[in-house]
Amino acid sequence: MSLTNHFKAWLAEKDRATPLGTWLMAAAPATAEALGYAGFDFLVVDMEHVPVEVSDVAGILRAIGCTPAEAVVRLAWNDQVLVKRVLDAGARTVMLPFVQTAEEARAAASYTRYPPQGVRGVAAVHRGSKFGTIPDYLKRANGELCTIVQLETPEAIERLPQIAAVDGIDALFVGPGDLSAAMGHIGNIAHPEVQALIKKAAKDAHAAGKPVGIVGPNPDMVTRFLGYGYDFAAIASDIAMMTGRANDWLAVLKGQTAPVAAPAAAY
């Protein structure tokens, strides 16, 4: 495991192909490793909607570390202790959900940085530092860690310029599932009002000079998001892709004329 954060470097490259990823909902190291070899640029380890602990995440990070893919850990909440434990477990890129204000974004940034830039607790020997073998880890870590905050309500997107301006926030991520729910269109991210706000968020992020990502349920939706200008994107999840393929094949074997429709939500 290297300290170099390739995901963060990708966001700074202007001529690189758009990084593409998927969500990991199975909490299975083998699945994570297989998808890492499948060609995804990044894999999102979900701690918000999956019953996993930090020890489970460490195992999944080890599996991803065997592959060319980069890991992004989506935490259960914007919590200082959880951030510290996940970083010590080896995460280099973290995503904090449901950030609503610049103040909450500043808190998130501080949790991921050592003093004086932040308040991350100091320990020398842990998986993040390769158990103390990375030279000058404590001095280099702040520059290599990548902090992403999720905007998941109309209010958060309205405050996007202020959130994007917070020092230490490396990228933004629009959560279309919660956004559609907050707008009164739960389960329907394709609703025109939701799509209009998703498109606006990409435009506002670019105006603020901040990379912005998103997740979509299928290639058509992700392609639409990329057309809006999103800088990185995830498609569906390991579980959604597995069950979707299973449904398609079962439909063929049972003589059904049409496969089961893909979910309307993101993953």
TrEMBL record:
What SUPFAM superfamilies has UniProt attached to this entry? Phosphoenolpyruvate/pyruvate domain
What keywords were assigned to this record? Lyase, Metal-binding
> Any idea where the HpcH/HpaI aldolase/citrate lyase domain is?
21-240
- This one is known as 2-dehydro-3-deoxyglucarate aldolase/4-hydroxy-2-oxoheptanedioate aldolase
| Reaction(s) catalysed by this chain's protein | D-glyceraldehyde + pyruvate = 2-dehydro-3-deoxy-L-galactonate
GO MF terms, alphabetically ordered: aldehyde-lyase activity; metal ion binding
What cellular component terms from Gene Ontology apply here? cytoplasm
